[in-house]
Amino acid sequence: MINFLSNLLIVSKISCDFPRSWQMGFQDPATPVMEGIINFHHDLFFFMIVIAIFVFWFLFNILYYFYFQKFTKTWRIVQRTHNTVLEVIWTIIPVLILIIVAIPSISLLYAIEESPKASVTLKVIGHQWYWSYEYGDYWYTNEKGKLVGGINYDSYMVPTKDLFPGMLRLLDVDKGAVLPTGLHIRLMITSADVIHSWAIPSLGIKVDACPGRLNMAKTFIKRPGVFYGQCSEICGINHAFMPIVVQAVPVEEYKQWISFKQEGVCVYEQAREKANQIAL
Ligand SMILES: [Cu+2]
Fold it and tell me: Among 1, 27, 33, which residue's Cα sits nearest to residue 14?
């Protein structure tokens, strides 16, 4: 029994950042926004359950008195039509419930839309049928010290025949996006062909990638982990085969990854300055 309980405790501490078979609830949140969404969902459920019980009680009563009893028993409310008090009550109470629900809903919407100054920008481009990622903050230089481009690469799903044990079918990719934890991140999302949607449940992100349009989202990842998502806008025959993987790592590891990507030429700050000069 103790073993079972301790196992349960361990399992409850493990983050579930990908969908499980027969999963009923949400995936574990990794951002304040997703925590807010889940809390709001739970708050809403309170009202939903109360309303559902009330409506079913009403329904049962109506059936009981007017169908099964064939009008033989007296209905408790004598005047059923044109009862002003009753009509006022059943207008005011739903209005109050809606107002109570609207306050946390709108504040959550504002929190999602807020965009504080971001430390990292990731550009996400949807293609038929893969994603590409661009880290425009960092640039390569060639041997002559000339800027030749940022960090950008494509992210393809790993086909079933190439999977290793432990990998997730239709979810794992060859190269996922890498993002730091504990920093404000800006996501610029667009598409090269049709409308896709970049969605990761654990991060509480779902933003459409539209051709010719740059959609912005922000996120703040609280803990390291590998977060899985899928394209969430039907985009063609291989829509189901363009999954999303984001690996969130501590800032130090993120810096290492960036410098590794730049092949040891860590010119981040200088490059930024140069790029600004070029832009001017
Ligand atoms: Cu798509």
Answer: 27
Whether residue 13 is contained in a domain is answered as: no
Would you call 122 exposed, middle or buried from its count of C-beta atoms within 10 A (0-12, 13-18, 19+)? buried
Q: What percent of the chain has pLDDT over 90?
A: 46
Residue 23 lies in a domain: no
Model pLDDT for residues 240-272, shown as the tens digit of each residue: 999 999 988 899 888 888 877 765 443 444 444
In a domain, 215, yes or no: yes
* Alpha-carbon span 249 to 180, nearest angstrom: 5
Distance 80 CA to ligand 1 centre (A): 54
Per-residue confidence at 58, pLDDT binned at 50, 70, 90?
confident
Query: The whole model's pTM is what?
Result: 0.77
For ligand 1, the distance from its centroid to the CA atom of residue 241, given in whole angstroms, is 8
Shared domain for 134 and 273, answered yes or no, is: yes
Interval between CA 202 and ligand 1 midpoint (Å): 19
Residue ranges making up the domain that contains 263: 120-279
Count of structural domains, the chain: 2
Q: 120 CA distance to ligand 1 centroid (A)?
A: 24
